[in-house]
């Protein structure tokens, strides 16, 4: 046992003297950041968030004045109903002509029987048949005309509905919501301000899922693959570190020259490859903090 302990001490000392490091690469932590901007112009009626707040996804963060858009949506809805009420009732419009056709058909049938019994001449039957043909053509013309009117009104109703939906979409954009669950990093507007389309309102970051962006040399590239489980250490300075389980989510497809503010294990390398390792944050990892990774 004593010999084993002596051998272990010798090996550790040799490792330390050779300059071996406990990590394979270093970098800084980053998070997915999104700038939320105004999608409508108007006064900020409510905007009750502060920097440092954690917001759930789709949580309402504020409201831009909606009065005018609400009234416009109601007006377009009323116009749509008014146009729709002008659609003709085809069944009622042609009812009179259908009755005339029914009477003409009975008249043709009556004269047909009379002609067959030599009680009427054929001219009377032909005249009755002509009146029936005219009424049938009149019915088809009425149906065609009423159909064109109905289609035109349907088109107007559809156009009015599209306008109403456009206003409803603008109205929906007055409600400022969070695109992701995360922490508010910066706030650029206050309640009561007048904002315009595109004005930044706040920046939010997904601080629950952090990424260590590190750089490795081509020598170590063969040891790294996407989906690989690795060990990540957050460096607080003074030898204080926290260990996390990480997963490699991205490897750069092209090399780049070593950035000035990046440290690599092999400082003699001119080119490195960027990698990103996802880490589940326990609340201690901050954006911009230095970290280390061991593959």
Explain what you see.
- Helices cover 39% and strands 31% of the residues.
- The radius of gyration is 40 Å and the shape is elongated.
- It starts with a helix and ends with a strand.
- It contains 6 helices and 13 strands.
- By secondary structure, it is an alpha+beta fold.
- It has a 6-stranded antiparallel beta barrel with strand order 1-8-12-10-9-13.
Short descriptors:
295 residues; alpha+beta; 4-stranded antiparallel beta sheet; disordered N terminus
Briefly summarize what is shown.
This protein is of the alpha+beta class.
What characteristic shape results from the CA principal axes? elongated
The low-pLDDT segments are 1-19
**Category by helix and strand content:** alpha+beta
- Whole-number radius of gyration? 40 Å
Oligomerization state: single chain
Beta-strand content estimate: 25-35%
Order of helices and strands: HEEEEHHHHEEEEHEEEEE
Using DSSP, what is the number of strands?
Answer: 13
Overall pLDDT score: 86
Determine the N-to-C terminus distance: 32 Å
**What is the helix fraction of residues, given as a range?**
25-40%
Largest sheet descriptor: 6 strands, antiparallel, barrel
How are strands sequenced across the largest beta sheet?
1-8-12-10-9-13
Instruction: Count helical runs.
Output: 6
